[in-house]
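call fold(seq) -> C-alpha cells
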Amino acid sequence: QNQQNQQNQQNQQNQQNNNIKSPKKELTNKKDNNKEKNSNIKNVQYRATKMKRVRKKPQLSEEEKKEKKEKRLLQNRQSAALSRKRKKIYIENLEIENKQLKECLKAAKNKILQLESYLPSDLV
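ret:
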C-alpha cells in the first residue's frame, strides 16, 4: 500500500510538472503566435536561426532605380546648399559680434587711459 501511495504521489507530481510551462517555452510560443499573425503580411520572411522579421526589398526596374537615385541626389544637393547658407549666416553674425566686441574693448581701453590721466603720477 505504501508503494502504491508513493507511485500515486509521483504520478501527481509528474502531472503537475507537465502542466507547468517553462518561461522559455512560453516565449517561443509567443513568437510562433506572432509569426502566424504576421505571416499574411507581404514581403516578410523569417530567419531560421532567430525569429526576426526580414523585409524583402521590392524589385525596382532600372528606370525606377535611376529616378530614385536622381531624387536622392537632388535632395542631397538642396540640403547641402541650405547647410552652406546657414553656415554663411552664422559666420556673418560672428563677424558682426566680433567687430562690436573689438569696438567695445577699444572704448574701454580709451576710458582706462582717460581715467589714468587724472591720477597722480606717483600712483600710476
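DSSP finds three helices and two strands in the chain.
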